[in-house]
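Internal ticket #5521
Category: modeling
Description: The requester needs a full-assembly model to guide mutagenesis choices. All entity lines are attached below as received. Residue total reported by intake: 804.
Assigned to: D.W.
Attached entities:
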Amino acid sequence: MPSPSGIITLTSDFGSQDYYVSAMKAVILGISPDVRLVDISHGLPPQDIMAGAWVLKNTAFLYPPGTIHLAVIDPGVGSSRRPVLVQVRDQLFVGPNNGLFSLVVESQEHRVFELSSKRFWREVVSPTFHGRDIFAPVAAWLSRGEAPEQFGRELKELTTYRWAKPIADEEGVQGWVMHIDRYGNLITNIPESFIRKYEGHSAFKIYVGNTILKHISVSFSEVPDGEAVALIGSSGMLEIAINKGNAEHMLGVEKGAPVSLVIQKSVS
Amino acid sequence: MPSPSGIITLTSDFGSQDYYVSAMKAVILGISPDVRLVDISHGLPPQDIMAGAWVLKNTAFLYPPGTIHLAVIDPGVGSSRRPVLVQVRDQLFVGPNNGLFSLVVESQEHRVFELSSKRFWREVVSPTFHGRDIFAPVAAWLSRGEAPEQFGRELKELTTYRWAKPIADEEGVQGWVMHIDRYGNLITNIPESFIRKYEGHSAFKIYVGNTILKHISVSFSEVPDGEAVALIGSSGMLEIAINKGNAEHMLGVEKGAPVSLVIQKSVS
Amino acid sequence: MPSPSGIITLTSDFGSQDYYVSAMKAVILGISPDVRLVDISHGLPPQDIMAGAWVLKNTAFLYPPGTIHLAVIDPGVGSSRRPVLVQVRDQLFVGPNNGLFSLVVESQEHRVFELSSKRFWREVVSPTFHGRDIFAPVAAWLSRGEAPEQFGRELKELTTYRWAKPIADEEGVQGWVMHIDRYGNLITNIPESFIRKYEGHSAFKIYVGNTILKHISVSFSEVPDGEAVALIGSSGMLEIAINKGNAEHMLGVEKGAPVSLVIQKSVS
């Protein structure tokens, strides 16, 4: 593990109208006054562990080695789910063991430690706010160079969700809309590598809602304003968008909707 | 008063779609280039002084000694309300004298100074944006070590609201919902100390909307998913929540609604 | 050009529920670990270039000399619009050449450079996220002191929109609502200088929606709570507001609505 980068990122579903994010920052600064705090997102849908996992996956590994990612989407706070520290590649993650780290550990070697050593916690721990009382101080102590092993025993397994993977065969792929961003772009769970396999074929169709698309474009602007376009988005996934428009609203498609790519057999 | 911590926090109802927060930060950085800026919240409901008072109370004292809290919820900007600086315990608060600091001074010794010394203001002061032109530069100069006495004369009294306190007698407590957070948790104005007095009793009932609760739980997860639970929240107040759900929506209760705890007399 | 202030500001329409802002920050910190990041706004309406131009104009020049402003509202990402760097007074702007910098260059000498030197880009550039792959690394390298000339050839012209200017003659001014802030204040495109010309006149009327106002006030509180008021706002523009209320909702006026000031001829 590299030495700390001096950066702690924060990810939560706490929103911006409450004192919860600030309470975590205050606790961190009391312990580690020189650390740099970077908000990843606090506007994730309440209790949406999958959205948190998605955001972490797409941004955590862009940070300098030795960065600590504090992530709190924690509908089971105070229940039997354990607080954990996860080491993946050159990054550290601190938060609840509830699936939030499913995507950052995917296909990656990782180590997991239970946060059981109370000397890194706040003296009084609220059963409803481990973000302030356990995760924030642990992240702060990590940023001061404490080794992961100090925080508790190593666990064999991390809780991970296997969110539905796309199903692929020689006739095509069946996936679904995993995320809709602020522009209404429909981001699927179908990675670029799946799509590339079908590019040699004479023709294929992509079905989403009532819309059929026949090409994978490179950028939004390849189609006229207001028209639907399929492309590989900046997260490396198949994405359905409207050039200068909102695909969620204009195509009437919701998170979770099926998206399929079907190969057109030549009639020869 | 301890020396400055090097931190200025910012709290406002300015939202995130305007230039107002940035204007305050730019002014601060022009005066005090090395200070650390931490946002507490800018998503408070427009002109909701009570919400600001609540957020400050729950987070300000977690910061290192000598932290400066710039707080601007200021519906009376440009009227006769005075700009002030308030010293409470080891923290400093800067903002309008309109009740915003009611809860941070509650039961605390404090000193109040009027911000009248114009050499700490911007040269031109807009009558509608004291945040940028008075409060931000004052906070910046404070962070550089100027003594509170330099900013203006000491005032005998701070404007404070006495938001309705719960009423308690031997039969129970009558309070109300003071805040609803992003999860829909109903946070009351009934502090833990009030509740503890009734715990020896054989039985009590908590009434909120059309719901009756008979226990104070420790965490959300003590009840099944989707059921209502009463507990002491992370702010030390009685809170009504739904495990993995939204109490505001599911119980149909709004901010300001009454909450009462009534002791059940034994029939013996 | 002054040496870098050590500050990079960020402005976008990325919102707070995605990883886009964080991805830009991570890339910057990987290149320029000591730079200070200040968010101007990420809550601008999706693809609203005018809103971005307005926010930049009102806040950029408050920052210390040598500050770099990274601004990404980029509906044409991946199309033929060029990535640019703009030098205005003592500030630098980085973003798409799509009109976003129209208001910061207004009546100001400025220089424009095309961002064509790929050694300052990320190795792989997504056609849909130049914020992460071109603009963020360029801003980071600028903050390390690279000269604007290093990034590409100088362009003769910047793309600017000439958003409708108010029309003025001896009978009055015809303008429109250019921006509505979080409080519902209606900010017009009529600058203070236009208004001052008419102040000598015995009387004038300001028409907005179904409301007529006869005075320019100094602050909101000059009228009773709940009444409409016209004043010069903190941005130096004519503004229509409701004292402690929301003019957008109470007057039923939308962005783009006409606002006119008409001089009342004396009957003598």
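Resolution: model delivered.
Comment from assignee: The mean pLDDT of chain B is 93.
Ticket closed.
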